[in-house]
Amino acid sequence: MNIEDIKKPENIVYKKTPILTDNVMHYCPGCSHGTVHKLVAEVIEEMGIQEETIAISPVGCSVFAYNYLNVDWQQAAHGRAPALATATKRLNPEKYVFTYQGDGDLASIGTAEIIHACSRGENIVVIFINNGIYGMTGGQMAPTTLLGMKTATTPYGRDAKLNGFPLVLAPMIAQLDGTAYITRQSVHTAVAARKAKAAIRKAFEYSQKGIGLSFVEIVATCNSGWKMSPTAANKWMVENMFPKYPLGDIKDVLKQE
């Protein structure tokens, strides 16, 4: 069989989604961002909504996400993506609008933005990458950093008396009436990635139903910031992050009806 035969549609087992560009990603080896980008791109392709999708990225490791997903993008100031998404969705209610934010962005400088967007019930999707650290700026403590976790600014481990407790955001915003779908997933295994993809698709579908904000938290690794190999980082995440941030759906208004 020659290469042209292999390329025939009937012989293709898997191909890269055209929603992903051919640009080489800048993320560190083992980073969860690339996998999540792929899942988002596949959902957009499968739903046939490329021309109807508008994405917003703020500051952080995902600041260059517009290089990798071939949809319309807007750039927001640090933490302000939900505010920009609010305006974008209200001006273009027929569009699928999502933000892509890390924990150092959304759970810190952007706390007010996400809380009030949830309270207002904006019909947007928020994809929240929680790796418990500021990855882009040097590995400092983030609001989601675990107790005892060592970072550049907590070299002896996070101390509750000095640094406060980790911010567990998803259950908190689930109490707000404007939220429709709140879930926490991961992408460390093939099975987990499939569940995360299904959650992302449901979030996009809910955003068009006019029932409120959908929030997909991805518990992720930052092996560079954690000073671990990718394999060790995945193991550490399962053993330490998951007990504090357990996976699964937290709120689904359509199932509650």
Brief description of this entry?
With 257 residues, the chain is an alpha/beta fold.
List strands and helices in order, with pairings.
Blueprint: H1 3-6, H2 33-47, E1 53-57, E2 72-75, H3 81-91, E3 96-102, H4 103-109, H5 111-120, E4 125-130, E5 133-134, E6 140-141, H6 160-163, H7 169-174, E7 179-186, H8 190-207, E8 213-219, H9 223-226, H10 230-244, E9 248-252, H11 253-256
Parallel strand pairs: 1-2, 1-3, 3-4, 4-8, 7-8
Antiparallel strand pairs: 5-6, 7-9
Helix pairs in contact: 2-8, 4-5
Give the termini distance in whole angstroms: 55 Å
Radius of gyration: 18 Å
Strand content: 15-25%
CATH top level label = Alpha Beta
Total DSSP helices:
11
Describe it:
This protein is α/β, with parallel strands linked by helices and 257 residues long. It has a single domain, classed as Thiamin diphosphate (ThDP)-binding fold, Pyr/PP domains (Rossmann fold), CATH 3.40.50.970. It contains eleven helices and nine strands. A seven-stranded mixed beta sheet has the order 2-1-3-4-8-7-9, sandwiched between helices. Strand 5 (133-134) and strand 6 form a beta hairpin. Helix 2 (33-47) crosses helix 8 (190-207) and helix 4 packs across helix 5 (111-120). The radius of gyration is 18 Å and the shape is globular. The N and C termini lie far apart (55 Å). 45% of the residues are buried.
